[in-house]
Amino acid sequence: MELLVIRHGQSEADLLGVHEGRADYPLTALGERQAFKMAEYIYKHFPPDVILTSPLIRARRTAFILQDIVGCECVEEQDLMEYNNGILAGLKKDEALVKFPIPKGGRPAHIPIQDGESELQFRYRAEAVFSKIVTEYSGLNRVAIVSHGGLISNFIKAFLKQPINSEFVFPTGDTGFHLLQIKDNSRVVRFMNRQEHLGERDLG
Gene3D superfamilies attached here (predicted)? Predict the structure, then answer.
């Protein structure tokens, strides 16, 4: 099976300079345009059998645009949501540094942010949703997954069977997508973070 892992388009939080995470901001006009271009490209080159999406507005809207063009089922999956950043959600980044400064040496991976989740819980959630998807949709040729930058990075770590303390990060641009393949006993990265569907003015 193939996993087509897609990040949502530009959201209003990107322009406001706030911590997004679980803050539920919609796509900008540019984000909508990015999503349409991505959907048309995916329909032509990598049409999925099903779309799974985070229920957060920016991802769900991106997924619905893809669904409208491809015509397949779209299913919301709670565990595809972005990192639960608790008290930081929607807070200006400079304000957050004053109100909730990062502990010296960083926050230990096992300690959750107030009202949120820890890095270990986040990684475990990505591992769990990866396992669920490859188990429940194993009979399909290609599954599209619409999510967020942080979750996608952890999802790729799960695919690569990286250790919990892995320091590698896998960034994804607006509507960038990765193609991962599971075949027999092999896991193949076909490509990562493609954005060729976007012209220079749509890169954000």
Answer: Phosphoglycerate mutase-like (3.40.50.1240)
Residue 102 banded pLDDT, cuts 50, 70, 90:
confident
User: Residue 103: which pLDDT band, with cuts at 50, 70 and 90?
Assistant: confident
| Beta pairing, strands 73-76 & 142-147 | unpaired
Cα–Cα nearest to 52, from 44, 42, 60 = 60
Phi first, then psi: give them for residue 143, nearest 5 degrees: -115, 125
The C-alpha atoms of residue 173 and residue 135 are separated, in whole angstroms, by 28
Which has the higher per-residue pLDDT, 167 or 181?
181
Domain residue limits, the chain:
2-202
CA 38 to chain CA mean position, Å: 15
Give 2-202's CATH code, choosing from 3.40.50.1240, 3.40.710.10, 1.10.10.10, 3.40.140.10.
3.40.50.1240
CB 120 within 8 A of CB 186: no
Active-site amino acid positions: 8, 82
- Angstrom distance (rounded) from CA 36 to CA 85: 29
